[in-house]
Amino acid sequence: MAAPLGIRRAKALEPRICRGLSIRIGRTHCLAGLFGGLLAILLVATAAAEPIDPCAFADGRREAGEQVEATTIISGDTLGLRDGRIVRLAGISVPRLHVEPAAGDEPEPTDFAAIARTSLAGLVAGRTLTLRPIAASPDRHGRIRARLTRAGDGLWIEAELVARGLARVEPGTDDYVCARHLEAIEADARAAQRGVWGDRRFRVLSATDPDLGRWIGRYVLIEGKVVSTGQSGSRHYLNFGTDFRRDFAIELNDKVNAEGRRDRKHPGRFATEGFMVDDIVGRTLRVRGVLAFGGGGLIRPSVPEEIEWLSTKP
User: Fold this and answer.
1) Which of 19, 83, 93, 297 is deepest in the core (most CB within 10 A)?
2) Which residue from 83, 155, 82, 70 is spatially nearest to 121, judged by alpha carbons?
């Protein structure tokens, strides 16, 4: 009996994806990731129309970027170039850590890291890519942190992974410029429950969840209503409960200037974005970041783009 058309096409693609890119896993594992994640990829691949990078413009002029070719897929957000350089996609992160399922979660969790890796391979295979670094020098791991688009059709790789629900937006001090664009794309994927957003392990948590401690040390999204604010030196606190010893809070440092750097002389971006005003009490926010110890859990955003207004901004 002949194999279904979709499987025959997938097999035809195997030499290009699993061999042509020299993915640093065995051929058997590559095929497992390709066919095991085929259904999930087909589902998320119906995400929105191909997103074009709106951040490729500076001072009204399009950044030329550098034409490159990917030869190695290291993970769903990291790839190697033909000249040996390693590129870490800016402003996003794909799932890496295994999260033990809680009661009611899937007993055999989907391996979204493998699906994202296979998806990235499919997006860049045989394509000329445009590389736009966001920093002058590599990071401490020797990687170039950059935005990546496909030459020709202009597909914004990071945005496509976010649209498919295979990556979450993760702004930083040097790549926050595009964050709001990516967060809007992420919101659509979350509403449609694409990819990770259909999995309870990656759900948006409530600020009043008594089990927040389970997520300490992990990158999470938390939303809730600000109950009170406090201050200690340059640190400001947005409290989501009445007991700071047991309830979740956001800690902001007002020494972050317009360039996202620590600055003692100029107003911080958190202040200019309205997060320090008294009438923020009663507003609903969503924050993303690594949940740290402290009271009922604490997140310390590095840039305002890690906080979203879910109710009217003051």
Assistant:
1) 297
2) 70
